[in-house]
Specification:
flavoprotein, 25 strands, FAD/NAD(P)-binding domain, NADP, monooxygenase, alpha/beta, FAD-binding_MO, 29% helix, FAD/NAD-bd_sf
């Protein structure tokens, strides 16, 4: 089977890519290849209690599909329903091929085609198809395996050990003592949700994170919706929240000391009198050097205030039969231990890439406009923002991709390939981000350069100019056409 475009992944990015492709290029034949048996990506995979977004849905949602729920910070079931409803309304769901895991793709310059190798999870068979373009929208982490560090004595623990990425539906934690290891977005989501029925929940962290309460509902946004209606209000709310988010990030970057003091002041007001704020909520890094954890309506702080949850900042010496021994000598008793210790990053879904018989080493490539790789033809990918809503960037990338296809059609090109004019250009990590899951694999990821078009922008306004308004052509993007006899 020969296709114009293969989209890898039926999550929020893949569904968005399909919308823009069929809107701007209705004649192109495409398919979405999804390794799992359901759409929705992250929002279908994760089933742990309380799972929700940490970005507002007016910016995390699609620009073309208004978010109509009154909750701006939404739970996974609402987000999943939104993504699937959007796919159904535009007929995208009929283009998804489930249980199709892309394991390899090889490019032939002589044919201007990718040959894509697919493993069928439902039949065990291996299939091959060809396409002109691959759009990788499979996210940035391994779906089949979360990250868990080595814990001394783990095998001795007599209770249950659970990773949030693989939450068992049958787990009964009511009335039990729970220790959640971690301090990131997953941990601060889990703790208040578990605390509703558990005997007690302890969040055990090695290093604190910045945590800020945010309203679960956008009061001004909901007022605008009631006055103007969904369609007219949505772009206004979206613009408002884009600007607000950007101003907060810029303030934290420009005035980190003032931002730290402000966050501490807010935390102090949320916590009981005399609470050791500096011990448990005072990170050693600056605000937004790692992603700031948002807690809707301050639910984490409320669980601490009412005594159903607590925070311990210490290091693990070993697991014991009944809990965890800390390096300080203290012990935490537990019936259930939750290892909210992060993700395993996996670029391009782990797909093996070759170009004209030569293997592509991602670490040797440089990102072009944050959406293509040097030396790799006709392959685009979607990686969103780390300092804002993921989907804001993905939408712009999809628009630019469609404009690029139009340019190629108009000029009769079959191939475009980013090519570095200066192979000795200084480079730095693709994501300048301090999170542990990035640091663990930074040497395995593509790089970015020190100038455009090899910079990976994390600014929405800059990307609007680059990806939506600027020309798709560039001296370092080489176009070519097949020569036919």
């Amino acid at each position: 089977m020969d296709l114009d475009v293969v989209i890898v992944g039926a999550g929020i990015s893949g569904i968005g890519a399909a919308y823009y492709l069929q809107r701007d290029h209705p004649g192109r034949d495409y398919a979405i290849l999804e390794a799992r048996g359901a759409s929705g990506g992250t929002w279908d995979l994760f089933r742990y209690p309380g799972i929700r977004s940490d970005s507002d849905l007016h910016t995390f949602g699609y620009e073309f599909a208004p978010w109509t729920d009154d909750h701006s910070i939404a739970t996974a079931d609402r987000i999943l329903a939104y993504v699937r409803r959007t796919a159904a309304e535009h007929g995208i769901d009929k283009r998804i091929r489930y249980h199709h895991r892309v394991v390899a793709a090889s490019w032939s310059s002589a044919q201007a085609r990718w040959t894509v190798e697919v493993e069928r999870g439902d039949t065990g068979a291996t299939e091959r198809l060809t396409c002109r373009w691959i759009f990788s929208a499979g996210g940035y982490y391994r779906y089949d395996q979360g990250f868990t560090p080595h814990f001394e004595g783990r095998e001795r623990f007599r209770g249950e050990i659970v990773h949030p990425q693989h939450w068992p539906e049958e787990l009964d934690y009511a009335g039990k003592r729970i220790v959640v290891i971690g301090s990131g977005a997953t941990a601060v989501t889990l703790v208040p949700a578990l605390a509703e029925t558990a005997a007690h929940v302890t969040m055990l962290q090695r290093t604190p994170s910045y945590v800020m309460p945010v309203p679960a509902k956008d009061a001004l946004g909901n007022r605008l919706r009631s006055l103007l209606g969904e369609e007219r209000a949505y772009p206004i709310i979206r613009r408002k929240n884009i600007v607000k988010g950007r101003l907060i990030w810029q303030f934290c970057q420009k005035y980190p000391r003032a931002a730290r003091r402000l966050i501490r002041w807010v935390n102090t007001r949320q916590l009981p009198d005399g609470y050791p704020v500096d011990e448990h909520f005072n990170p050693p890094y600056g605000p937004w050097d790692q992603r700031l954890c948002a807690v809707p309506n301050g639910d984490l702080f409320r669980a601490i205030r009412n005594g159903r949850a607590s925070v311990v900042t210490d290091r693990i010496a070993s697991f014991t039969e009944t809990g965890i021994l800390l390096e300080s000598g203290a012990s935490l008793e537990a019936d259930v231990i939750v290892t909210a210790t992060g993700l395993n990053v996996q670029a391009m879904g782990g797909t093996r890439l070759t170009v004209d018989g030569r293997a592509v080493e991602l670490a040797d490539t440089v990102a072009y406009k944050g959406m293509m790789l040097s030396g790799v033809p006709n392959l685009a990918y979607a990686v969103g923002y780390t300092n804002s809503s993921w989907t804001l960037k993905v939408g712009l990338l999809c628009e630019h991709f469609c404009r690029l296809l139009k340019h190629m059609d108009e000029h009769g090109y079959d191939t475009c390939r980013p090519s570095l004019a200066d192979p000795d250009m200084p480079t730095r990590p693709f994501l300048d981000f301090g999170a542990g899951y990035i640091r663990r694999v930074v040497d395995q990821l593509p790089r970015q350069g020190d100038r455009m078009p090899w910079l990976t922008s994390m600014s929405y306004s800059s990307d609007v100019a680059l990806l939506r308004s600027a020309e798709v052509t560039d001296p370092e993007l080489r176009f070519s056409a097949l020569v036919t006899a």
